[in-house]
């Protein structure tokens, strides 16, 4: 495979996985690690990736259709757990994302709720249900994923104080920092967390030990971490050591 096609393949892997590692790429493409490092340097110079220690992360969002089909069984499992924290009459923030979309699908038939979201897909899922009072944040729409971001969306969330906020993340680093591809998304997630009496991270175990470009906050800034049942003993132990105030479900 020539370098042009190899670099295209690296970008495709980043769109799918969000992160690549030099050693794994060298083995897959049967080239030296130095060759892969040159590829990553070239792509970073083109402002398409951000190099990290031992690899690289994407600067762009994974398109919504790809996100939606990834780990859907785990997302539904997380949504089932999250639903148990919700009571009729409460006001919720649902952050943009496919796991929070699974939660929206889970709650739409049952309870009287007020839902505030910046996700067009969640709004489209809920707007026709009489038991849901729905607010949608304005702002710049990210066409890849269908979510509103930017200063207008941030100002919108300043107007609310809610019972529960359900937050997604692109990745959760080994040190338990939530990270995301854009500074606008990071700022908006912080607004959502600050607007809630209790806040929940919804993320499956595959997000752990990954890193994106912009830091949102440390996991300890939230109250709960709801994960799928495949969470590892290592993850449980490290949370107990590093963020003991977090309730892991």
What does this structure look like?
It comes from Halarsenatibacter silvermanii. Residues 3-58 form the HTH deoR-type domain. GO terms for molecular function: DNA binding; DNA-binding transcription factor activity. The protein is an alpha/beta fold and 249 residues long. It has 2 domains: 3-58, Arc Repressor Mutant, subunit A, CATH 1.10.10; 65-248, Rossmann fold. 40% of the residues lie in helices and 24% in strands. It has 10 helices and 15 strands. The strands form 4 sheets. Strands 6-5-4-9-12-14-15 form a 7-stranded parallel β-sheet, sandwiched between helices. Helix 6 links the parallel strand 4 (91-94) and strand 5. The longest helix has 15 residues, at 3-17. It is globular. The relative contact order is 0.12. The model has no long low-confidence stretch (mean pLDDT 88).
Which properties best describe this structure?
10 helices, single chain, 249 residues, 3-stranded antiparallel sheet, 40% helix, alpha/beta, Arc Repressor Mutant, subunit A, 2 domains, Rossmann fold
Query: Into which percent range does the helicity of residues fall?
Result: 40-55%
Strand order of the largest sheet: 6-5-4-9-12-14-15
In round numbers, the mean pLDDT is 88
Work out the helix count.
10
Rg: 19 Å
> How many DSSP-defined strands?
15
Domain HTH deoR-type: 3-58
GO molecular function, one term: DNA binding
Organism: Halarsenatibacter silvermanii
Keywords: DNA-binding, Transcription, Transcription regulation
């Amino acid at each position: 495979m020539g370098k042009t096609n190899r670099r295209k393949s690296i970008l495709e892997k980043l769109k799918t996985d969000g992160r690549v590692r030099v050693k794994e790429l060298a083995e897959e493409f049967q080239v030296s690690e130095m060759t892969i490092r040159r590829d990553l340097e070239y792509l970073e110079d083109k402002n398409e990736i951000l190099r990290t220690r031992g690899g690289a992360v994407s600067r762009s969002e994974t398109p919504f259709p790809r996100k939606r089909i990834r780990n859907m069984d785990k997302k539904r499992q997380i949504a089932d757990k999250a639903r148990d924290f919700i009571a009729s009459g409460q006001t919720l923030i649902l952050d943009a994302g496919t796991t929070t979309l699974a939660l929206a699908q889970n709650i739409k038939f049952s309870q009287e709720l007020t839902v505030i979201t910046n996700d067009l897909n969640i709004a489209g899922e809920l707007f026709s249900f009489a038991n849901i009072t729905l607010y949608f944040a304005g702002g710049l729409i990210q066409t890849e994923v269908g979510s509103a971001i930017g200063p207008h969306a941030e100002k919108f969330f300043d107007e609310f104080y809610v019972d529960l906020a359900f937050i997604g993340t692109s990745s959760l680093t080994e040190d338990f920092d939530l990270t995301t591809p854009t500074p606008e998304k990071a700022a908006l997630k912080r607004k959502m967390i600050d607007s809630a009496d209790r806040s929940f991270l919804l993320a499956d175990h595959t997000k752990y030990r990954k890193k994106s470009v912009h830091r949102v906050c440390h996991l300890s800034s939230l109250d709960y971490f709801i994960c799928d049942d495949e969470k590892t003993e290592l993850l449980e132990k490290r949370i107990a050591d590093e963020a003991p105030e977090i309730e892991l479900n």
